[in-house]
Design a protein that fits this description.
Elements lengths: L1 E2 L3 H7 L5 E7 L4 H15 L5 E6 L6 H4 L7 E6 L2 E7 L4 H8 L18 E5 L4 H12 L5 E4 L4 H11 L6 E4 L2 E4 L3 H8 L3
Parallel strand pairs: 1-3, 2-3, 6-7
Antiparallel strand pairs: 2-4, 4-5, 6-8, 8-9
Helix pairs in contact: 2-4
Length: 192
């Protein structure tokens, strides 16, 4: 990944055609370290697509320019235009699918669905967690994924909110759904 130190430096390296990615992260954060490691794995094996990274501790103008208020966030660019944002840390296979266009990404400009704050608390080994995330992707719901097996603070926040330790748990605008309770998820997300 190419490290950039300002918005101007990033824009000067942004290709006018094709895909590229910019990972915004915060040095010293577990979630950011996870995202850096997993995006880095994908970037190493790909010489056709450019990957940039910026530490928000050092770079103050990129995240504000694109309206990014949480890190880690992977910004997706097509033909020099921002087309998507993937928040949180995901497995390297998720990022690989993203760059290969085999992963569904909702259209961030459609405006068909009201913006919701959705956080999924999960672990990589949890099959219901993966089912839940696939269902959210299929329905075009953007979410932040917190891996509670790696993020102690995230795990503690989850238990504080719900009183339960099991995963998956989904926080939708402050309402907690424990497990993959599809009828409740549809109700809160207003999915028919």
């Amino acid at each position: 990944m190419e490290k950039v130190l300002s918005y101007r430096e990033f824009v000067s390296g942004l290709p006018a055609e094709g895909k590229c990615f910019l990972l915004l992260y915060r040095g010293g954060s577990e979630q950011s370290a996870c995202a850096c490691k997993n995006v880095g794995k994908v970037a190493e094996g790909n010489d056709k697509i450019r990957f940039f990274s910026a530490d928000v501790n050092e770079v103050r103008d990129i995240h504000s320019h694109y309206g990014i208020d949480s890190v880690p966030s992977l910004l997706v660019f097509d033909d020099g235009r921002l087309t998507g944002v993937v928040k949180g840390c995901h497995d390297s296979s998720y990022y690989l699918a993203l760059i290969q266009n085999s992963l569904y990404r909702p259209d961030t400009e459609s405006g068909n669905k009201p913006a919701r704050t959705v956080t999924v608390y999960s672990t990589p080994a949890c099959s219901w967690c993966n089912t839940l995330k696939a269902w959210l992707n299929k329905n075009g719901i953007q979410y932040t994924d917190i891996d509670v097996s790696r993020d102690q603070a995230g795990a503690e926040a989850m238990v504080r909110r719900s009183g339960q330790q099991g995963v998956p748990q989904t926080d939708i605008d402050g309402q907690i759904v424990v497990g993959f309770d599809q009828p409740r998820l549809k109700e809160l997300l207003k999915i028919q």
